[in-house]
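Example complex used in Figure S2.
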Amino acid sequence: MKKIINDPGNVVSEALIGFAAAHRDLVRVNFGPDYIVRADAPVSGKVAVVSGGGSGHEPLHGGFVGVGMLDAAVPGAVFTSPTPDAVLAATQAANGGAGVLHIVKNYTGDVLNFETAAELAGAEDIDVSAVVINDDVAVEDSTYTAGRRGVGGTVPLEKIAGAAAARGDDLAAVTAIAERVIGNVRSMGVALTPCIVPHSGEPSFVLADDQIEMGIGIHGEPGRRRMKMEPADDLVADLLGPVVQDLPFERGDQTLLMVNGMGGTPLLELYLAYGIAAGLLEKQGIEVSRSLVGNYITSLEMQGMSVTLLRLDDELTQLWDAPVHTAGLRWGM
Amino acid sequence: MKKIINDPGNVVSEALIGFAAAHRDLVRVNFGPDYIVRADAPVSGKVAVVSGGGSGHEPLHGGFVGVGMLDAAVPGAVFTSPTPDAVLAATQAANGGAGVLHIVKNYTGDVLNFETAAELAGAEDIDVSAVVINDDVAVEDSTYTAGRRGVGGTVPLEKIAGAAAARGDDLAAVTAIAERVIGNVRSMGVALTPCIVPHSGEPSFVLADDQIEMGIGIHGEPGRRRMKMEPADDLVADLLGPVVQDLPFERGDQTLLMVNGMGGTPLLELYLAYGIAAGLLEKQGIEVSRSLVGNYITSLEMQGMSVTLLRLDDELTQLWDAPVHTAGLRWGM
Amino acid sequence: MSGGCDGPGVAAAIRAVAAAIADQHVELTRLDREIGDGDHGENMNRGFKAVVAKLDADQGMAPGAVLKLVAMTLMSTVGGASGPLYGTAFLRAATAVGDTDQLDAAAVGAALAAALGGVQARGKAVPGDKTMVDALVPAAEAAQGDSVAEVLQAAAAAAHDAVATTIPLVARKGRASYLGERSAGHADPGATSTAVILGALAEAAKG
Amino acid sequence: MSGGCDGPGVAAAIRAVAAAIADQHVELTRLDREIGDGDHGENMNRGFKAVVAKLDADQGMAPGAVLKLVAMTLMSTVGGASGPLYGTAFLRAATAVGDTDQLDAAAVGAALAAALGGVQARGKAVPGDKTMVDALVPAAEAAQGDSVAEVLQAAAAAAHDAVATTIPLVARKGRASYLGERSAGHADPGATSTAVILGALAEAAKG
Ligand SMILES: Nc1ncnc2c1ncn2[C@@H]1O[C@H](COP(=O)(O)OP(=O)(O)O)[C@@H](O)[C@H]1O
Ligand SMILES: Nc1ncnc2c1ncn2[C@@H]1O[C@H](COP(=O)(O)OP(=O)(O)O)[C@@H](O)[C@H]1O
Ligand SMILES: [Mg+2]
Ligand SMILES: [Mg+2]
Ligand SMILES: [Mg+2]
Ligand SMILES: [Mg+2]
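Predicted assembly (1080 residues):
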């Protein structure tokens, strides 16, 4: 394992030091408990949008703190949910009096820790509502599992919920918009290589030289099946097919197409994959009206990608287009 | 080799198809010869800034085409300079009548192909001036080599030259600004792992599990020396030391600090490294007034990083801050 | 417990647990790598190290206060799924023992039952889901005896045996559930850490 | 040349070069991986394949026109350092032979000298820098004889021998120069491709 780190136990806090230094115009970082808030938090009278989860998925979530997106993010240890006290502290720091929306990815750890934090925040008279994103169609049988995982859809969810809060929606309205995103977004990912969690020092799984893991989560959790590596045309079709069928997306739908890298795949390959996905959608009469290509929700240095499709209506499109200024996503300002 | 590609011979053109589709609001892509231009090119009366080089360094250069940065980019095959006819075609497409600046990274291939293209453009009465960026301090002996390579400094160079052109500077002035950036920017990089060029299928070099290549170029060309992997504190000091000493940067200098990933290193590690570099500079009284952290000039899936330091004056700072809207760098609009 | 079942005795037993977790954390992480995300040992070890630091700082607490301190510390340092689950377990145990100065066999049995109730309330897992519940249920059932030592011994033995019973199970809760059939053939990390914790408590109680 | 030294003969010889490059491209790339960026064989093969496609489309050119077509095609398809260098070499050779219909020994010698001049004008390399110049200089010097076949035979032999002399050299131009001392011990890819090209031309000239 070769990583640009010092002590594996300090990776997250040392990275936060760097993040704080690089983005002092944008964010403030609190250490112990660790959280990141907008530099101008709390924004009085605005609903605050707070998310969090294990580290190692950067830019998610800290890279999405700023104007028009998240008010605060709570980074746990690498691939480990943050603890309720940290979520509570971030919730308090972000709360501008209009309530706080928790955006939680559907992993048992995230759900339990955010639930506990919400109870604690309630006890302090902070209005908290929570949405759980579970867009990973790779999990076929949600009755016999912990349910579908939250993956790529988290990025447009945080952007759009943040925009709704920025335009002045109240907590119920921001929550409703967030639920609308969750209802209309689906994703699936594939891993070409594993990643190595710093404190573990061992690959999260082992793949043969010609093997891939189809339907991977964002922590190297296994997917639907191991299979032989295949050409990009087939690979993208295998990812996009289940995504389209699940909602299902239909002829005439307006969509946001996001092709996301898992951290170790060159942008060149992501654009190549985007071209294939866009072509397949065009053939089905599904219109791609917005797009996002790059590394937005990653698994450390894992090679691989995910495809996310969000069905847009006019309001969601407007909220997606609204100005945003964060370390990881910026436009209009 | 597991890559998200179809035929290794078509990687660049298939990626260009995806790039064109994802950014149709921003760019137009020409195929055969391949180049990328601003959607609204040529911008009449504005100096055009054109760059290019082998592919595999994305987002450089195509990801920097747009308002306030490059007017056109010419992507060669992976790690192979583009040919003069392609550079000429891009130059013609970008030329708005006020002349064209070629930004060339100092590699023999890039220099020779751009030189030939400039001769051809001259024969067609297009005013071309060229700057050659050679910021890589890892090349110690430039008399007995092809000279210092152009690496990370290319990114602020393209941004700042593009901003000078956008504010209406004439060709001589844009060229002078570009030379000022080149005179004040220094970089050095390190590879933790090699990368694999698609058509070659073999790693560009081989490193032991605990070995790194210090002073690497952006194509897997070897660096100053092979050495044992070391903690991030030492690694960053080993990169930053030669960079600071070379110019030299001095107490009181205002700088832009860029920590760049080679493509396969997690953002978490890049921020960690940024924190270390910023701390070391602070100790030396060198002020970091602007920063950039992320994957901007990459070597496919190589793990590793580079540090770039640019001495800023008020004008360079203003030009850096000026609005830019490209796929890879965006602010102020 | 070596120092009896007063506050210091409970604190000493918790230190024994921390030592056992430190000892086993590589193995717990290895198990979690097989069917999870490879952090369970690290998570638990981080948590119990923090517990020991707090115990060092604050001595002379009653049993319930010690358990509550463990609960709050695990909750705020472990993270992941196991953090709130073990946190809730210790919190319910603390509530169950109340402010008594001295634990007896009945109190320990009641604490274990309360802990199990807390884990199930939070995590919604039932026996057979391949989670720590599969170790806690037989442990709570077996927690009978005339002395604290006997109760814990019985619970620990039951938890220990339960670990092996999780091997053939297909996970239906937690991260391992995403493996589906592929989760069979591996012991559950959380059930294993439950056995480690109860084993250390039982050892400590023997004195 | 099998078809003589008229235009079709030169075109046939160029096709032979393309075949030889296709044959050797993996080895050329391997050499470039050792001291460069591992694309030289790919670059040259892409270029000469394009040349063959153009020759297929446009038959019946005079020798100079064939050489100019090779030059322009290499220039626009090879890329890298070798593209403009070989492009310039063939362009200067084309200029040197002018619009004659038939090449003789002297014309071939002059073309080779012109090619060398072009490479040096563009690339500024001198002998000993570990580049294609190290094969071109001895080839141009050796290019003597009574027939085209003899001239090319001599040039090819000299270039062939020169490849080995590049092995101990420390590169001072091109990408290999960044290796410093580490570039010694490997043959230069461009010198090798020069030997391949001249070797194929000489074979073709033998008929
Ligand atoms: N819903 C649940 N109820 C009870 N225990 C659970 C539940 N989900 C997970 N667990 C336990 O948590 C263990 C994993 O803990 P840990 O690895 O620390 O957290 P994470 O899965 O978030 O990485 C599993 O082995 C299992 O015993
Ligand atoms: N300045 C130069 N003059 C002459 N030949 C050169 C020069 N620089 C490089 N070369 C030749 O080019 C060859 C490499 O070509 P190639 O691999 O196709 O291009 P690149 O180095 O751009 O990848 C070298 O082996 C060397 O023979
Ligand atoms: Mg975890
Ligand atoms: Mg090359
Ligand atoms: Mg785990
Ligand atoms: Mg090369």
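Residues B 80-81, 108-109; D 32, 36-37, 39-40, 43, 80-82, 85, 119, 123-125, 131-133, 173-175, 188-191 surround adenosine-5'-diphosphate (ligand 2) (CB under 6 Å). The longest strand of chain B covers residues 48-55.
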